[in-house]
Design a protein that fits this description.
By secondary structure, this protein is mainly α. α3 packs across α10. The model has no long low-confidence stretch (mean pLDDT 83).
């Protein structure tokens, strides 16, 4: 349903603009095709480096260590099948993203002469695509319904699995751990009630989220809080043999608190209008409900009054969270005694041989120390010896 809705809109939009080449020509004239923005400035809204490093970190966490994906991998019979699933997911995800980006170019081509947000026809940029479907596809009976069905299919399939995962994780890690004698029937009841509670909470948060601005940046910002922390914990354990529970715990606490403070501070400054990002040029010359007769540029906003920590690009939040876990977690592990003997299978593959050699070297040193130690003298009392 989701892919079908995207493809139908792509075909209609391309035909309306006069072909694929025309879509890209219009986008190029409007400065919408920026493939490699290689700036290293961490305070811009988007750049090649920011997307490559920031979003890659977040997706490694989402796919590699998040409970909803790990539980799916555990449901697959073999490791080779799991690898196939990752390939299928990756290819499918790339296709969906390409379709979404192309649809964005189509929407821009349609409204290149009159931005619907500035014109007042759309309240928020998040609503432009839905408005476009209603505007263009209204002549085709059922197409708007297909589009809505595609959106709900995507949302519900993701939300249902995430809520079930969260309920199962809560039950196994907190309830079942404390009350191991609970029956399966009782456990099922608890998880069902947990799902209802989680779903109700999510529904209530919808009314909060709609007041917080762009859903794209907000979703990545909030996701980065937990994604970076989770990835940092697992990576700390896989790369540092001496990491222990105390280090992971305090690293996680520090990461959650610091990144949450950054996100809250940034959102508050955005809501108050202190923090603004420059946008690409948009045109109002074709609007009939406004007297504008020129291309409008969003002038550069001086964000220097905002503390630098709140001006960091939102895509870097997951990277910051993972690094904080390392910076805090490893020293705490060392100060609290570290961990001497672990299962080497829990380490990253390239760390296992190093850890094995370290253990062998340590064991040889201990044996050599015992071998070279002088025997106690028989002529003196043992206390003197």
């Amino acid at each position: 349903m989701m892919v079908g809705a995207l493809i139908v809109v792509m075909i209609m939009g391309t035909s309306l603009l006069g072909g694929v080449s025309e879509v890209f020509k219009i986008a190029d004239r409007g400065e919408r095709i920026i493939l490699f923005d290689m700036t290293t400035d961490p305070f811009v809204r988007s750049s090649f480096l920011m997307v490559s490093v920031g979003l890659t970190t977040m997706w490694i966490s989402n796919i590699g260590v998040s409970p909803e994906c790990v539980q799916r991998f555990l449901a697959i019979p073999t490791l080779s099948d799991s690898r196939k699933v990752v390939w299928i997911f990756g290819i499918g995800h790339i296709i969906i993203k390409l379709c979404s980006v192309y649809n964005g170019l189509i929407v821009y081509g349609k409204y290149a002469d009159c931005d619907p947000v500035t014109d007042g026809r759309v309240k928020k940029p998040d609503q432009i695509f839905a408005y476009y479907v209603l505007d263009v596809a209204s002549s085709v009976p059922g197409l708007s319904g297909l589009f809505v069905a595609g959106i709900f299919s995507a949302a519900l399939s993701s939300m249902s699995s995430c809520m079930n995962t969260l309920a199962g994780t809560f039950y196994m890690d907190f309830v079942k751990h404390k009350y191991p004698s609970l029956s399966d029937e009782t456990g099922s009841r608890i998880m069902k009630m947990s799902v209802v509670f989680i779903g109700t909470t999510c529904l209530g948060l919808v009314f909060v989220v709609e007041k917080l601005g762009n859903i794209f940046s907000l979703g990545i910002s909030l996701g980065g809080v937990t994604a970076g922390t989770l990835l940092g914990i697992f990576t700390l354990g896989m790369l540092c043999p001496r990491a222990n529970t105390a280090g992971a715990r305090w690293g996680a606490y520090a990461s959650l608190v610091i990144v949450s403070a950054i996100v809250c501070g940034a959102q508050m400054n955005i809501a108050e209008g202190n923090l603004k990002y420059s946008s690409l040029p948009f045109n109002l010359t074709g609007c009939t409900s406004t007297n504008a007769t020129s291309i409008i540029y969003n002038e550069h906003h001086d964000n220097s009054s905002v503390p630098w920590i709140f001006r960091i690009g939102f895509m870097y939040y997951s990277v910051i969270g993972a690094l904080i876990v390392f910076i805090v977690g490893y020293p705490v592990s060392i100060l609290t005694g570290g961990d001497e003997d672990i299962d080497e299978r829990l380490l990253a593959p390239f760390m296992r041989s190093w850890y094995r050699n370290q253990r062998k070297s340590k064991k040889m040193n201990q044996e050599m120390h015992v071998f070279l130690a002088p025997p106690p003298s028989k002529d003196l009392p043992q206390s003197d010896t």
